[in-house]
Each structure stands twice: as C-alpha cells, then as structure tokens.
Write a structure and sequence with these properties.
The structure holds 2 protein chains of 2 kinds. By secondary structure, chain A is of the alpha/beta class. Chain A has 2 domains: 47 residues, no CATH class; 220 residues, 3-Layer(aba) Sandwich (Rossmann fold). Chain A is built from 13 helices and 12 strands. In chain A, helix 4 links the parallel strand 1 and strand 2. In chain B, 42% of the residues lie in helices and 11% in strands. Chain B is globular, with a radius of gyration of 22 Å. The chains are: A alpha/beta, B alpha/beta.
Amino acid sequence: MSLSKPSARRGRESARPSARVPVARGVFSPRAEERGSVQEPEPAPLAQPAAARVREPKAEPVTGTRPKAAPEGAVLVTGICGRLGKLLARELHRTEQVVGVDRRAFPDRPKDIVHHQLDMRRKKMKDIFRGRNIRAVVHLGILHDPRRSDRERHSWNVVAFQKLLDYMSQYEVPKLVVLSGANVYGPQANNPQFLTEDAPLLGAQHFGGMRDLVELDMLAQSFFWKHPHTETVVLRPCHIVGRVHNAASNYLRLERPVMVMGFDPMMQLVHEKDVVRAIQLALRPGVRGIFNIRGPGEMPLSRIIREAGGRPRVVPSPLARVALDQLWKLRLSSFPAQELDHLRYVCMVDDSRARAELGYEPLHSIERVLRDVRRLRYQVA
Amino acid sequence: MAQRGSIVPFAGWRRTRLLGESPLRQAVRSIGDRVVRIAEEVVGQDIDARIAGIKTHKNEVGHDPFGFDPETSRYALAVAALLHRRYFRTQVYGIERVPAGRVLIVANHSGQLPVDAVMIASALMLDADPPRFPRSMVETWTAELPFISTLYPRLGQVVGSPENARRLLRQEESLIVFPEGARGISKTFDQRYQLTDFGLGFVRLALETNTPIVPVAVIGGEEQYPSIADFKPLARLLRMPAFPVMPQVFFGMIAPLPTKYRLYFGEPFRFAGDADDDDCVIEEKVWLVKSTIQSMVNRGLRERKGVFV
C-alpha cells in the first residue's frame, strides 16, 4: 500500500524519530533526488514515473532557480498549542506531516504529530530544521498578551522570529506562512472603509503595544524580498472569533461589553476555521504575497453585540478611557485603554486579492461565528 | 410582568427591559414614525417607497458595507423633505440631466452648515425619477466626533478618501462632492457666491473611473447663516476647520434663516484623458467645471427676485 505512493512512503520514514539518518534533502536539489532513486533498486517499476517526474527540471539549466516544492517534508507549526494552532494541526495532519513547536505541552495531540516542547528562542530550534526535511513553516507563535512585559514580547515576537527566518534561509525552506492581523493597519478616523494590502501599517501610531506586531509583519515582508526562493505568505485577517481566546472573542463573550458613547463603527469578524482554511490554501505551492482575510459580512458593532446575546454598556469616551486605565492598573481588566480605538474607528479590510489569488471565501456565516463565541460563554457561566 | 415577592424594587420592569427594546429606542421610534407620517402628508409623497427604491451593494448579511441604514435614513429623509418643500421651498431645475449609473455631482459649497448637501440629496431622492441615492464625502474629522460619526454612515455619508470614492463609483453609485471643501462652506458674507479654489482630486477621480461630472449651482445657501468673521484661534482650539461668527445666533436665531433655495443642474461633463497627468492639464478641466458652476450661479442670482421669495 505504501509502495503505490512513493512520496507518502518517504514521508513516513522521515517522520519516524528513530530514523536518525539524515534524510536526503532531495526535494530541493534534483541531483540528490536522482542519486536516491538510483541507489534504491527494489521499487523500480513504481518509482520510475515518480523519478521521471522529478528529473524533469534537470533538463532545463538549474542556475539559481529552485524547482517547485514537492509535496514531501513536514510542515512546522509554531505556537501549535494555541486554539488556532490545535485547529490547524487537526486539519493538516490528515494530509501532511506536522511538526509542532510550543512552550506548552500538547497532551491530546493526534498520534502522528511530532511535538517539540521548547522555547522558540532556544538553540534547539535549529536541530528541528537540521534533523528533518521541513517543507513549510506556519508561524502562529506570536505573543499577543498585553500583560507581558515589553521586553518579553519583543524577544518573543521579533528576536525569535528573526532567528526562525535565519534557520529558514539556512535550510532553504521553500514556504513561510505568517499570521499577522488587520490590527497592524490600526483603527483610525481617516481610514478608508476597506483597507487594501498596500495601506500603511499605522497600528502602533496610537498604541505602542502594537509595535512588535507591526515589526513582525515588516520582517516577514523584508524576508519576502530578500529570499525570493521562499514563498512567503503574510495573512492579515480581521478579528478572529470563535473558541479562541483573544481580545475580540473575550470582548464578545462579556455579558455587558462596553461601547463608546456616540460611536458605532462597522466591524468584520472571521471564524477561526475560515482562518485555518486560509492558512491551508496559503500552503499550496505557488502562492505568495500578502493577503487580507475578511469574514462574512460587516455589521455595526452594536448589532454584533446584540446578536451575540450581550447588551452594550454605553460609556462616554473620556470616562471609558480613565476607567479602563484604572481597571488595567488594578489588573481587573485585560483590555488596555488604547484598544478603545477599535470601538470608535473602522479598521476593515478588502479581501479581493485573497479571493482572486488564494481562492479564499469565508464559509462560516456570521450567525455561526457568533454562536460559537456565545457557546463558550455559556460553558463558562 | 411584575415579580411577586421579589425584594428588589422594579424587578419586573428590569425583566421587561431585558426582553424588549430600551425605552429610549421605543421613544425614538414612535417620534420618528410620527415625523414620517407628517412629512408624507405635507409633501404628498411616499417616503418609505422612496427609501425602498434605493439599491446599494449589500454584503452577505444584508447590510450596506459603508453603514447605510434604511431605518435611520427614513427619519432623516422625512425631516429633509419638510425642510426641502416647506422651510426652504427649494426649486430644482434640470434634474433630468443627471445620468443613470455612476456620477459625480459637483456643487458650490456655502452656508456654514452643510444644508446645501441635504438639499441636493433630498432633490435627488424626491424629485428625480427613479430616486437616486447620493453619497457625500464628509470631512475626516467628523469621524472623530461622537454621535455624528454614528449618524453620518447610517445616512450613507462616507469619510472623504480617494479609496472610498473609487470603490463607490465602481459600484455605480452617485457621489456629491464639494471641491471647495471647508474653504467654501465657511466663507464670510462679503465673499458670498464667489467660488474659492477647487481641489483637483475630483477630476482625477472622474478620469480614473470614467465618470460623468454634473455641475450644480446652489443659490440661497449663503444667506442662511451670514457670517461676519472667522474666529481662527478658537477654531484651532476646538480643532474645527473654521469658527464663523454669526450675528443671528447672538440674537437667539439658532436655526438657519428661511431663504429660498434654488438648485440648477447642468449638462454632464465627460472628460477623457490620463488621471495621472500633470496638474496644469488637470487644472484646465477643473477650471472648466468651476467656471461653468460660477456662471450658473451668476445667472441664478440675476434671475432671482429676492432672498426669501
């Protein structure tokens, strides 16, 4: 059964941790692939078409151009133990080999997922790249928690990501998918109703806590230009909502979420599973660039809150700012006061590029999105 | 339903509030409905049918992505209809010249408060057949003002940015543009009906999206709030574009004076050329539009017999 699919067989071999022999990185250099097929004589009739297929790029001169990424090798997912990471892992491991990296443990992982419980800033990260054939990296391990110190967030989001990019260029990983967010554009009064991918990243203009997330996005963009052999994809989804624990979902789970008096901006929400699907689409060979990801339909904030089953608590802007500042200092609230701008100004994205080039379309309706948010609230209650 | 035996006062009231609408919302609705009914009787037109005739590009949840809300607009159109027909007794000339599909409606700006935009919009909604729903591009700083920033999008107003304008025109909508901007609206009384400098953006936009430009002359706006000076330091302090000094406000007349409005719609311009041309090339086209509006204004002023008649 395994012989019928040579690529699957190769994949399983390298997945086995006992196989300490470094797998030939044949995916990336056609010559090595050719040598491999010569050394293995047994499955000759079956391997023949595959070898012929791989040998094909050798006919044209291989000067600095890389052949298309073969569907072999593992997908490395950083931050796999977050809700989104787990969802992605469950979807991906059916068709791909998945290697996870996270500081947290992943006890309920599917058996074929290899999990490394380590800090991304450690040298050990390099061993993962050295030890196995990584065909793509999905970077989800981004620290958003505003309670963490600036220093920790910077070392995690920027320094660790920089190291990851170094390893990627060293080991010539052909694909990088980074999950940034529409927050990097920042909510502003003078925003156009729909921001395209070319809009400037002004998220840190009024909220310093966003600085490292903007920097991370910029790093990914510069990697895109510096390493044209790696297909870099930056996804910028609007507020991801569902069973995840992020600011937007936590806000919608509140019984009485605060609204700023006199402001009712239009807002977009996207279901976590739609984001997972967008990541899967971005992993296809040939896809590169920056893509905004939008949810199904935009609505005023007040209507979203009411449909999520909450009742807005309307507070004048100066009072809300002062109160939220105090609550933040007393550790009674997890929302920094600068994030109030999200409740005042629009920060919506235009996803026409994702529709055209990625083939992405949100599948989960807004009712489904809000139902999933609500479900978790009732469980907690 | 009152809860018997509850020690919490007004517990039952709280429950009904939880289940139904808030009293404030109910009050707004009942007053709004009354205004709509009065307007329909006075004007003799079916406001709801006019609102129902609006076609916007709705998203998956049936909401306009720019925030237009028919419920709120219904009340606004009723008030605008009363102002249009009764208070300002607006006369509209040549509205049949507005072509179907995408269009830029370019007018002179006047009168301290954007009543001229309301008059043009209500003319397009009430007098044009079929009704045209216009969007107007508003100043960015209105998005920072509480309540206004909620109200404007619900009425279909859009923050003035080239991206928004391009998107709306590609959706075959009509846009009202005042190329004079804040300079025009806050003119003092001695400069009435003298057009100030036009921005070049609207012609570039029209060239890029292949949109006809309909020039409109608005007569009557300049006399509604005569301003004798622009108090600049206070304007800077309040972060407003201008702070007009209006004598009538000191005499307790907060509402605009009931001048008679006249709207003249001109023949549409259809420009062809490169949107990224030099300023001097674009300026010629802008000058053409501006001088047309100025001459339409001058003719309108000659024809009218008085400010209030």
